[in-house]
Structure prediction request, 379 residues.
Amino acid sequence: MESEKMILINGHEFMFFPGETILQVAQRNEIDIPTLCFMKRATPTGACRMCLVEVEGARGLVASCAMPAAPKMVVRTETPRIGRARRLTLELLFSSGHHNCLVQEPLRDSQTDFQLRPITSKEREDLCPASGTCRLQELALRYRIGIDRFPPSDPGHPIENVNPFIVRDLSKCILCGRCVQACNEIQVNNAISYGYRGSGSKIVAKGDRALKDSDCVFCGECVQVCPVGALVTKQDMESRTQEEAATEMVRTTCSYCGVGCQLYLHVREDKIVKVTGVEEVGPNYGSLCVKGRFGYDFVHDSGRLKKPLIRENGKFREASWDEALNVVAGKLKSLKEAHGADAIGVLSSARITNEENYLAQKFARAAIGTNNIDHCARL
Ligand code: SF4
Ligand code: SF4
Ligand code: SF4
Prediction:
């Protein structure tokens, strides 16, 4: 009975649950099968052909992301035949786009040399902004592909850089479809789809218009899932041309609304340069809205108050926190004594954390004694 639920991968037996694909069983058991188009939260499409595996009895290689596990199935995930197929796919992907991350240079002797070259290159500023984080580049290095088998055919799509959030360079697009699935299946915005046919195929928004003229709401989900440099946030693009510095990832909770989305702040030299959703945990599993993903410039706004101000004779002057708090406490006390607690109202902010808003209402209700507490999204 148990063998009815067992599958053999690379000579080892694994149990599978009804409906699980070969890839899911492999991932659950930490067997690495490379993928480009697969996304946990979307329907598998088998579009990229990177997850091909050998299944005994099958005529050709099969896409493990779309093939359900079956009892007593015998699977191999790394063989010379699979390696050749994956290399062919990668070489074709490279030849059909404009990939300027130096992966095009002959690199078969030393991967370390190759990886150091973009850092020291004079042309660094022209490098693809995804270099170093690109999944296609990573697989090209891993499978040590050659670049001379197929003549390059750059589709020549112009870079779209006409909105404040997202830069689209579709000449680097590998048509994996992740952005389309992220937009349509996960965020259900239905703003982008496949357009045109054959070698002219392209991801389009509203009949091939700029994102800003489409139904796009700039949630940035497509950018987060794009495995290459075809979709990049504008802020990320700009920050990469600056002096290279370590980027620290700080996990936090979005402060815009009560959903509590989990996000990473990418911090370089004390500045937030990018925000991404945390994919492994709820409530958002990587998704964010336009505010959570792009609305962080207020943190570094030059007009932001850093010291308390006290108004005297119609003019503000800087004060210490002790002095300012004493003034506020004294005025609240005298107002309450003269007119009662309900003469006072407390306005909190949507741009502070839920915990801070909780404390503000506690202060209004418990310390002052009024229910006049609200928050204002524009504060
Ligand atoms: S998209 Fe990836 S492979 Fe293409 S140029 Fe950029 S880093 Fe290189
Ligand atoms: S930003 Fe959001 S709405 Fe716009 S195309 Fe990307 S996923 Fe769709
Ligand atoms: S834009 Fe990125 S995510 Fe979308 S199809 Fe192209 S490579 Fe895939």
In short: The longest helix spans residues 321-339. The chain has a mean pLDDT of 89.
